Amino acid sequence: MTRERGSLTMQSRRRYSAPQKPVGVSLVHSYINLWSTGMTVGMGGHYFAWNTGLVAGPWSFGLAVTVMGMAYICLCCCLGEVTSMVPFTGGAFGLARWTFGFHAGFLVGCCESLQYILYVTCNFVQLSRFTAVTYPSSVEYPYVTWIGSYMLAVGMLCCNSATYNRWNRLLAFLSLGLLVTYVIGSIPLALSSEAVEPNVAPSAIVQDVPSFFQTLPQAAWFFAGVETLNRLCNEVESPNISIPRSQLGCLFTLICTALTVFVMVNVLPPGLPVIATSVAPFNHGFTRMFNCSVEAATLLSIPATFASGQGFAQAYTNIIVALCSSRLLPEGFLVCLESTGAPIVAIALGTFISFVLCFMHYYVDVNVVLFDVAMLYAFVAYLSQCIGYIYLRREHSKMQRPFKSPFGIYGALFASGVWVASIGGLVLYQDIRGPLFALGLLGVCSMYYKVYAQKHQVFSTQENKALLFAHVARLNSRQAYRRRSVEGFAGELVKLINPPSKYKQSFPTMYKTANKKRQRSVKATVAVATSGRSIGREVPLPSEQEDALAQARRVVDAAITPLDTTSRPPNSPTTTSTTNNPPAPS
């Protein structure tokens, strides 16, 4: 009976194991797969939604795109250095647990997963709009397009790694090929007589500062998703080398395509303000290029839009798996398919939430409300990663890292400033329903953490390997700070003035409460996932164990030394040799 129970335990552990790197993946194939994933995720933002930022005027929005591109360069350099030090599939969630604590780290993980879930919703709702332009009869039934898109994306995510990588490469090259065709085909149109001045009054082109901050988050849609490559550490060879290089290669490709698309869309007719409200901004070029109808031209924007949604679905699956591995979500979500190893329950959870949010299309404009919520969560996750990089760079500067950010802490500070400005633009100049909805979702996640996750959370196996040293060092520094804190100094001062027996009665309640809370918060609560111990249990730090052993040895030596000196003859040597060592040479 005991053997049978043990075998069931081992089966459950194998069942709940995290996805592993596919066998036989070379470094070259890892580069290609990573680049393809980055292009499929980021290329979809070139085909829709970004053009609404042109309401601020071409110069203001062009400056916003430039600033946002520089911020993403700094962010990718920071993430590349972090990945080269501690490869971890949890993304911002793992760094935030170490930097801000477990509760805030869980909320950052929720922000990141909800960000990608909302991205998928926005992509597939936009896909239904493209379908409605091509087939007007489908306007009344957009959910048919949603169901088909989700079924195809989930089906491909459940395939084995080789099949999915080939499918992903096909989508990447198809999306990039259509965009390059648009850019190259637009050059002769821009040089011909068809390229006329935009039919817009000068007063309609806004160039003020508030409009710049209002449209700054729209510029991020050109590059959103390139950070998802850091969640693929288990699926590539040498992630500390391949991920930083592939990520920067993807980003520079997206920057080049974004700038060329921005220029071509503005120089081709009809120009502003028509292009700012267009559902598919590439239609004006494709219709002139191929002499086709608007319905046929809209079909060319569908592959990249679907590919982007599928890539974001892979991203939220990785985040959900990381949260489940730390038992912040029930372990049942880690159940994988036996044939391919795909975490089918985690995929189904994120897909169900994203599909339900699609029905908000009937009540609000998804590209306004849900898009703002997704970008708000994205900037919070970016900001936490930049802060985590700064702490990691300062406190563990001697760790070996194959890739080092050329911008250092200053680049992280610049990117953090851009994220803060973007958050301000979303809160102050966008629809207030978006920030309120985002706060409501975070409130629900916080309540869930207090009720369930706080009692069950552990460090996953990956966190033990990658970030446990950082957690222990962080807790040691907090303990040292607590010993030098104001509460400790005030307590010693009160002890000198009052007798020890009256110390507890005379000590201010505020100091006692704060000191108790600080003591509870700084205790080392390190847990290993394989041992099944929760984070809430107190575990002595290694330094405390060493101090206790050293103190015990000193006590034993002090007790043995007097007995040893009194029992030894006067002329006997103080030490004895256990081996016949030869005399030392003179």
UniProtKB/TrEMBL annotation:
Protein's cellular compartments: Cell membrane
A GO term for molecular function: transmembrane transporter activity
Membrane topology note: Multi-pass membrane protein
Keyword set, alphabetical order: Cell membrane, Membrane, Transmembrane, Transmembrane helix
Transmembrane parts of this sequence: 23-49, 61-88, 100-121, 141-159, 171-191, 341-363, 369-392, 407-429, 435-452
Gene Ontology CC: one annotated term: plasma membrane
Composition-biased stretches (Low complexity): 565-586
Keyword presence, Cell membrane: yes
Keyword Cell cycle in annotation: no
Superkingdom of the organism of origin: Eukaryota
Annotated stretches, region: Disordered: 557-586
InterPro entries documented for this protein: AA/rel_permease1, APC_superfamily
UniProt name for this protein: Amino acid permease/ SLC12A domain-containing protein
